[in-house]
Amino acid sequence: MQKNSKRTRRTFIKSAGVIGTAALAGCSGGSDSSTEDGSGGESSDGESSDGATTGTGSETMADEIVFYNAGSLEFDPGTEDNINRFEEETGISVEVNEVPWSNLKTSLTTIWRNQDSTVDAFNGPTWWLADFVSSDWLEPLGLGSDHMSKFPDSLNDLVQFDGQTYMAPEFGKWGSYLYDQQYLNDQGFDAPPDTWDEVLNQGEQLSQGDKSGFAFTWAGKSVFSFKQFLYQAGGQLFNDSYEPVFVEEGMEVLEFFNELRERGITPDGMSSLGEGGIGDNFIAGQYATVESWTPLGSRAIDEWEEGRIGSARPPKGPESRATFQDTNGISVSAFSERKGAAKEFARFMTTRASSKNNMLVEGNPAVVPEVYEDDEVQSEYPSWLLEDMRFNLENAQSETYMAQPQVDDYLNEQLTPALLGNKDPEAALNDAYSNIERLYQDIGLL
């Protein structure tokens, strides 16, 4: 469903530089283009380090770079450990600027509007790429198939535009379906609900006392969660022509949400609970089943007694078991004056070895499927959890679209009242549709 539309849309995005720069970012800056420098090489781990240059700056290998990390490394020990490995193995020092997640995109936009070379590389989500690529703010990484073919095709589709890679996938954070095995057994269930219908039919029995039968992340992740259920219903946000097409399948999602709320299956106040709050409440025993982000499974293994935590593939919606693809990756600034070193950093941080190390150190799921077969990884995590993590990686979906912050704001301001039962679902979706359509008309996409 998504694959062809993504490729078509990516060709359109890359050719929409004037729209992206002037209308979306509010700037007049860009980057000069040049041909590939023709240099090549192979790293010590056998993955190509070739790179192409389209912006300003030098391909000479510098001895230091500036890296903008999304948040504090205190909470990203896997990234921190891989940075240390990079410095030790290459001799290139990395100055890390720890930018709060909520400020990172704005900070980068301000820097690049002025064509500033302050930042060489950053990590962030795939769903920022449309705005950044269309504005000519990112450097193609020049990573060949020997590096990129280890990632799932669906993930490659998200980071490539016109055949060039603009982000190297670093670590995964996608939906994960977890449950309290002991509690389910006490209620007479051997396994958690396997479909939307079963979530509804079994959820009332699982909602006993202060225990809710089913919960999912909302605050700060509302659009992510909505898209996951939208993909399970067989929908998507946009078609190939950038027209919004989410209303019909979106109605199935919001009707499902309404049933959950009206039957008392989801907890009160869920709209205010983000990834941390949902995780804390699940660990505290307040939910029978939960859809949250993958690191919660590793946390439950550490904090619960053996045999209590269970994992399963997401409940199947009308069309699929898709989960939302929230992978973070490394990109290089088109204005960097140290592109060679920055590209090598992006390559090193996204090798199979680095993906494995991030998973072992922090618990972030690897974005390389074969890592799940590694002996060391299999000795660290139970096989049932690894199987579900790999399934979710290979079945995760997402979309890259222009004016992402504005689109997501329009969706959230309508979806949250509908989730709470304070707005008619059809009216909410139609209002979101109209606002997004008008936005895209205003910036010239429609």
Structural features, described:
By secondary structure, the chain is of the alpha/beta class. It folds into 2 domains: about 1-175 and about 325-395, Periplasmic binding protein-like II (D-Maltodextrin-Binding Protein, domain 2, 3-Layer(aba) Sandwich); about 175-325 and about 405-440, Periplasmic binding protein-like II (D-Maltodextrin-Binding Protein, domain 2, 3-Layer(aba) Sandwich), CATH 3.40.190.10. Helices cover about 45% and strands about 15% of the residues. It is built from 19 helices and 14 strands. It has helices spanning about 1-15, 15-25, 75-90, 100-115, 130-135, 145-150, 155-160, 180-185, 195-205, 220-230, 245-260, 275-285, 295-305, 340-350, 350-360, 375-380, 385-395, 405-420, 425-440, and strands at about 65-70, 95-100, 120-125, 140, 160, 165, 170, 175-180, 210-215, 285-295, 310, 325, 330-335, 395. The strands form 4 sheets. Strands 1, 2, 3, 4, 7 and 13 form a 6-stranded mixed β-sheet that branches. Strands 9-10-8-11 form a 4-stranded mixed β-sheet. A two-stranded antiparallel sheet has the order 5-6. Helix 3 (about 75-90) packs across helix 15 (about 350-360), helix 11 runs antiparallel to helix 19 and helix 18 (about 405-420) packs antiparallel against helix 19 (about 425-440). Residues about 1-10, about 20-45 and about 50-55 have low confidence and may be disordered.
